[in-house]
Amino acid sequence: MCCAWNLRSAGAAPVRNWCRTCMKRKREPRQSWTHARRARNASLPRKVTSRTSIAASRRRMGTDEGIAMNQHAIQNLTLFDLLARSWRRPSAVADLHFSADGSTVAFTCVDGTVSLAAVADQEPPESRIRVSNDLGQTSIRPREKSPVPLIATAAFGDGDVPLAAHLNSGFLVGGASGEVRHLTAGGESLEPLLMIDGPIVAIDHSARTDTTAVSNGHDVFLSRGQGDAVKLRHATTSSTDALAFSPGGRRLACGRGEGVCIWAAEGDAALIRDVGFPAPPVSIRWSGDGTWLACGLETGGFALVSAADDRYGIVAGFPSPARTLCWSLPENALFASGAFRIAGWSMTAPPLDGETSGALETGRAGLVPVETVAAHPEKKLIAAGYANGRITIAQIGSREEALVRPMGSPVTALAWSGDGRHLAVGAVDGTAAIVTFPAQMFK
Predict the structure, then answer these.
(1) Which of the residues 5, 63, 213, 226 has an alpha carbon 20 to 30 A from that of 278?
(2) Where does residue 14 fall: left (phi above 0), alpha (psi -120 to 50 degrees), or beta otherwise?
C-alpha cells in the first residue's frame, strides 16, 4: 500500500507530497483499444511453425528463383549455344576441312595435331524444335547430351600441318618428316603414300585426276595415284607456301614469292603462266568453273587472274591480309576477308582496271576486321568470322544478316558442308565446333 492511501486516510494529502511511485501510477495513461487487443493476442498461444515447413518454403522460393534464372539464361542463349556442338583443343585451330563424302571434319591445330569429328548429329535441331499450339511460335530447346568426343592424333610436326580431303572420308596429311600419310576418319594414320625431302608446308589433292601436289617451301612435286613424287622441272626456288588444283584437276596454281605460277598438271607438267604480284600470296582459290584464280595478298587485298586470257588485276586497300577467299556458285561472285565488312564482287563485272560496278554490299560494316569467309554451296549466303569472335551469316547483296555468335575468341577458319546444313568453326582459343542448322532455316 503506498503513501498516498495513508495520507488520504489521515485527511490531508496534498498532491505535491505524493511519492514518485504514486504519481507515476496516477499519471499512467489509459491503454487504448488497439493496445488492449495487442495485449490479448500476445497472451494467446502462438502457432508453432516447424523447421520442416520453413525449409519447404525456402525450397519453394529457391525453386521459383531457379526457374526464373533458367528461363532468363535460356532467353540469352545464342544460335551458337543452341545449334553448335563445340569442343576445346589445347592449342589454336589453324584450319579445317570436310571429307569428300561430308561425313567427317578434320581440324588442324598449331601444335601439329589433327582432331576429327563426325558430322552426324545425335541431337539434330529438328528433334528439339517445338511449335506452340496457341500462338504457333517455334522454339528450340538446348542440347541435353554432351557431344561425342573428338578423335585426336599425335603431332605430325611442330606447327600446324597441311591437310587435304582424300578418298571418301579420309584425309592426306603432310608431316615435318616429308611424309604424306592417309588419315582415316577414325584417326588411324596409314603407311606413307609418298615422301619428299624437307618438311611439307602445302598440299592439295584432285579427286578427279587422283593427283597430289606437295611443296616443301621451295620445290613442288606431283604424284599420280600412288606413284613416286616428280619434281616440277622449272619450279621456282622462291617460297611456295600455297597450292591449289583447278576444279577439274588439269591445272595447278602455285604461290611463288611475290606471284603465282599456273601449271598444266596432265602428262608432262608444263608451265602455262607466271604472274607477278606486289606482295606474297597467302591463299589461292579457283572459281567453280576454273576460269578465274583469286589470290589473297599478305599486305591486304587480293589479285584476280583470268585463266582464259592475260587479264589480271589487284584489288588493294584492305586493312589486313586477305587470308581467306571463297567463290559463291549460286551468285557467281568472289568474297574476301581482311576488310571491316564482307567484301564481295559479282563476276558479271570483275573488279579489273578500276571497275567497281560489281561490288556487292553484303552484311554490315563495323570496326573489327573479317578474319575468314565461307560461301554457302547452294544458297546466296556468306558466313563470316571476325577478330572479336563474332560469327554472322549474310545474304549476298543485302545488309541483313543472322547473328550466330556475338563474340568470343578470334575465328580462324570456317567451312560449309557440301549440303549446306553444317558450318564448321575454328578459333584461336582451341574451339572446334560444328553448327548444324534446321533444314527450314534458310528457305
Answers:
(1) 213
(2) beta
Helix, coil or strand: residue 331? coil
Using only C-alpha atoms, the chain has a radius of gyration, in whole angstroms, of 37
3-state SS, residue 277: coil
**Rounded to two decimals, what is the model's pTM?**
0.82
Considering only CA atoms, which of 305, 351, 344 is closest in space to residue 327? Answer: 344
**Cβ neighbours of residue 172 closer than 8 Å, sequence gap 6 or more:** 163, 164, 165, 166, 180, 181, 182, 183, 193, 203, 205, 212
State how far the Cα of 421 lies from the Cα of 102, in Å rounded to an integer: 10
CA distance linking residue 413 with residue 95, whole number of Å: 5
Q: Quick check: is 22 in a domain?
A: no
Cα–Cα distance list, 25 to 5, 22, 33, 355 (Å): 12, 5, 20, 107
DSSP 8-state secondary structure symbol assigned to residue 390 = -
What does the block give as the cell for 335?
568474297
CB atoms within 10 A of CB 148: 13
Which strands form 163-166's sheet, in the order they lie side by side?
A: 163-166, 170-174, 179-183, 189-195
- What's the pLDDT tens digit per position in 316-341? 999 999 999 999 999 999 999 999 99
Q: Dump the DSSP string for 231-268.
A: E-TT--SS-B--EEE-TTSSEEEEE-SSEEEEEE-SSS
Q: Rounded to an integer, what distance in angstroms lies between the CA atom of residue 323 and that of residue 341?
A: 14
Closest C-alpha to 151, from 112, 204, 110, 104? 104
Angle (nearest 5°) at CA 433 between 430 and 436:
170
Instruction: Domain count for the chain, please give it.
Output: 1
Alpha carbons 187 and 184: distance in angstroms, whole number: 5
Domain CATH code at residue 398: 2.130.10.10
Using alpha carbons, select from 299, 364, 282, 373 the residue that is nearest to residue 334. 373
Domain span at residue 388 reads 83-436
Burial 336-362 (b: 16+ CB within 10 A, else e): bbbbbbbbbbbbeebbbeeeeebebeb
Query: What are 147-198's pLDDT values in tens digits?
Result: 999 999 999 999 999 999 999 999 999 999 999 999 999 999 999 999 999 9
